[in-house]
User: Which sequence fits this backbone?
């Protein structure tokens, strides 16, 4: 059925796509003139290590005539009578000026070598940007993080992302708790998460941002606002792409850590490529924690009386157990494929549910479980059929299931004490539940990149995702809710043109088509009926960057984007989030401006500064609100549309480095999300919440860190690193600022926390020991509705790594 809807929107928007292609073709510079009037010069630009230099600028007689492609090649055509003064430049390299004799024209490929620019090399060396510098120099507003520098710590991926300006990873508790990424005020599903360029919507609860060990990832790319076409997501506020821990050749990376609250974390990554191209990638991890950390709360010592007193107690029902194993087998470096891999991911998790959406709701027997069985396919080939045409194809399908169990007819307090529930109870601690369901998630992404000429590149992406939730609850076999259709299909098509004709400037324009089909239900007077809807939207945007000099850059990007409601928002998560099948897609105009510069002095000092300005104008903004308490007096949440929301903000980031020893970094973020819905539905009265700041979203926060390294401590080829970190969040309202009297407003208080780490490596990094301390001041830390995060805790980690 979905294919019929899909064909309708394809026909509907064919004229738009054809028009865009015509405009693109008209904008392309002529590749050549008649052969009898032109002379051709072909060249290969390499650095001193004989590696190709991509995107180097080629100038002839002071005029920009092209750029090298990804393999360092270029071909230019010009009049025979034109001057032959050639000039080649690239960021980080010395400018090469050379006269080309007529004997070298039309005589094959000439090699040009660019020497390294000393100042730029110093900046890269001092700041340690070499692995991520290419990503950061894109025209998109992107921050790339090198995760390998923290592989010896006990942190997870979410804790590293938390150090990026504008980003907050909001957790409802300790290890394995529910998380939501906030990026410049947009949060949760509004920020898309990718693994090696493929959306991970279908990975289930066994693969979440706060249970992925840091060693599983080599690099993290944070795109603020505008998302490039090749990622293929329907993000509203940005995207985060996780690049897995893979290396060229054969390697082994294994680690184990133990910490407070009986927390155990283990991880291994193994890679092997044989001479005949046979490729094997094997990785896995294990997480376990009792999560019995201390919380400060008004407890109920006597359940029957309901009287509360303040006390400090341990969480008693919050155990988390999770494991994942992944394998990819295939071939590399073949004529028909640079890489072809068939994979399988297996995993499961068990998580006790200690609280609801507030600390007053305490449970002692509820839990959730999930499994992942995910076969996958990956194919990549550069110069596919013709030179300059690169393609990649990824796909996966999750056969796993999720389960929510709530069968104990008792009421608990924070001391772990319980009493039987009343006869009028619906059963269980919240509702009588033994619901098991499969989302049957699948997704596939095709990326095509074609270098039309050295200055123009065409990008195409098509990403398709599908969900068909099916489940049953044997405790409520006659409940019609579980029999309702819950189907969701989504297709996103993107087309972009990248251009680098102008000196020191890179541009990209793009269009995106969004399509979604929902087959769900609606309820009228407790009677269910089918509900189907198809939606089609067209987005567009551009991204530009201009290099002011070797160490300075200005970026601007704009996008009209859409984001379709996600599965849990439409159908609920069967724990604390109720369904809302009639949610509308949200849209936004996103504007981003970034300025960055690196100062160098006295050969050993480098100071990098980056400033961002953002503006968001959103429609039908989706946010989570507390719904009315159910008949067991437990607060649930529901995703709802807020018609008009504006956000203006800025963040500032600074990084100072002295050689490769001392590093000091910090960031501060301000984001001002305001309700611009003047009139609520079915009324002409101005809303009392008009122009209010959106509740439960921090608007001012920052972080700082300092580290120092010593070489050859105790042993040769050893390294000792000491680091300290501070995090700050300004206080903010839990609910609408205009609601209630001033003395009754609930406020999430100001938060300040400190972390520290000590890492010792020896045998050139083969053996590593790391000690971490978090929340050293034992501060009360919150993210969501006053749900307290872990108290003071420590961990120690042992890591072994080898590469051949």
Assistant:
């Amino acid at each position: 059925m979905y294919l019929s809807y899909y064909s309708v929107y394809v026909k509907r928007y064919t004229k738009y796509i054809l028009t865009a292609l015509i405009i693109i073709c008209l904008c392309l510079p002529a590749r050549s003139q008649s052969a009898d009037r032109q002379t051709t010069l072909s060249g290969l630009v390499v650095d001193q290590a004989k590696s190709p230099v991509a995107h180097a600028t080629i100038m002839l007689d002071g005029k920009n005539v092209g750029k090298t492609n990804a393999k360092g090649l270029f071909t230019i055509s010009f009049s025979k009578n034109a001057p032959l003064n050639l000039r080649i430049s690239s960021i980080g390299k010395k400018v090469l000026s050379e006269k080309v004799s007529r004997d070298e024209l039309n005589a094959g490929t000439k090699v040009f070598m660019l020497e390294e620019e000393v100042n730029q090399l110093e900046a890269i060396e001092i700041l340690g940007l070499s692995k991520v510098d290419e990503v950061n120099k894109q025209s998109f507003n992107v921050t790339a993080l090198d995760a390998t520098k923290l592989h010896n710590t006990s942190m997870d991926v979410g804790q590293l992302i938390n150090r990026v300006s504008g980003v907050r990873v909001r957790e409802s508790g300790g290890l394995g708790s529910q998380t939501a990424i906030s990026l410049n005020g947009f949060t949760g599903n509004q920020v898309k998460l990718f693994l090696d360029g493929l959306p991970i919507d279908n990975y289930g609860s066994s693969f979440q941002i706060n249970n992925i060990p840091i060693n599983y990832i080599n690099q993290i790319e944070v795109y603020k606002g505008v998302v490039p076409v090749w990622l293929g997501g329907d993000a509203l506020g940005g995207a985060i792409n996780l690049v897995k821990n893979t290396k060229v050749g054969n390697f082994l990376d294994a680690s184990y850590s133990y910490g407070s609250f009986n927390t155990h974390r283990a991880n291994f990554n193994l890679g092997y490529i044989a001479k005949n191209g046979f490729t094997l990638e094997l990785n896995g991890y294990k997480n376990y924690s009792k999560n019995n950390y201390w919380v400060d709360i008004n407890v109920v010592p006597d359940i029957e009386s309901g009287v509360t007193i303040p006390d400090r107690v341990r969480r008693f029902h919050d155990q988390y157990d999770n494991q994942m194993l992944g394998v990819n087998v295939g071939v590399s470096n073949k004529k028909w494929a640079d890489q072809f891999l068939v994979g399988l991911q297996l995993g499961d998790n068990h998580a006790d549910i200690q609280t609801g959406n507030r600390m007053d709701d305490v449970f002692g027997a509820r839990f959730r479980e999930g499994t992942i069985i995910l076969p996958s396919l990956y194919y990549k080939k550069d110069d596919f059929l013709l030179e300059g045409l690169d393609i990649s194809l990824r796909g996966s399908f999750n056969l796993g299931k999720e389960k929510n169990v709530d069968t104990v007819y008792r009421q608990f307090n924070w001391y772990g004490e319980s009493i039987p529930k009343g006869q009028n109870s619906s059963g269980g601690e919240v509702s009588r539940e033994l619901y098991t369901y499969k989302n049957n998630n699948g997704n596939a992404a095709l990326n095509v990149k074609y270098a039309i000429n050295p200055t123009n590149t065409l990008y195409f992406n098509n990403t398709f995702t599908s969900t068909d939730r099916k489940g049953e609850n044997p405790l409520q076999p006659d409940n019609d809710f579980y029999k309702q259709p819950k189907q969701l299909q989504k297709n996103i098509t993107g087309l972009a043109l990248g251009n680098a004709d102008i000196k020191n400037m890179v541009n990209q324009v793009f269009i995106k088509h969004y399509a979604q089909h929902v087959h769900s239900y609606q309820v009228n007077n407790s009677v269910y009926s089918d509900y189907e809807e198809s939606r089609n939207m067209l987005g567009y945007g551009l991204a530009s960057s201009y290099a002011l000099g070797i160490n300075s850059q200005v970026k601007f990007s704009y996008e009209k984007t859409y984001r379709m409601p996600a599965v849990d928002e439409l159908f609920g998560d069967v724990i604390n989030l109720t369904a809302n099948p009639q949610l509308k897609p949200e849209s936004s105009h996103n504007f981003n401006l970034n300025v960055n510069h690196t100062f160098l002095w006295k050969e050993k000092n480098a100071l990098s500064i980056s400033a961002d300005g953002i503006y968001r104008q959103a429609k039908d903004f989706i946010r989570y609100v507390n719904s009315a308490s159910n008949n067991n007096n437990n607060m649930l949440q529901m995703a709802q549309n807020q018609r008009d929301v504006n956000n203006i903000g800025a963040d500032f980031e600074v990084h100072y480095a002295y050689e490769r020893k001392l590093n000091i970094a910090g960031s501060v973020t301000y984001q001002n999300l305001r309700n611009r819905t003047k009139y609520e539905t079915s009324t002409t009265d101005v809303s009392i919440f008009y122009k209010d700041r959106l509740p439960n979203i921090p608007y001012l926060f920052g972080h700082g860190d300092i580290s120092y390294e010593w070489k050859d401590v105790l042993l040769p080829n050893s390294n000792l690193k000491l680091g300290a970190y501070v995090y700050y969040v300004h206080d903010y309202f839990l609910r609408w600022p205009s609601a209630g009297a001033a003395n009754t407003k609930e406020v999430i208080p100001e938060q300040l926390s400190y972390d520290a780490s000590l890492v010792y490596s020896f045998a050139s990094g083969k053996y590593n020991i790391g000690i971490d301390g978090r929340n050293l001041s034992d501060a009360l830390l919150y993210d969501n509705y006053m749900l307290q995060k872990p108290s003071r805790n420590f961990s120690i980690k042992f890591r072994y790594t080898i590469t051949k």
User: Anything to note?
Assistant: The radius of gyration is 28 Å. The longest strand covers residues 527-549.
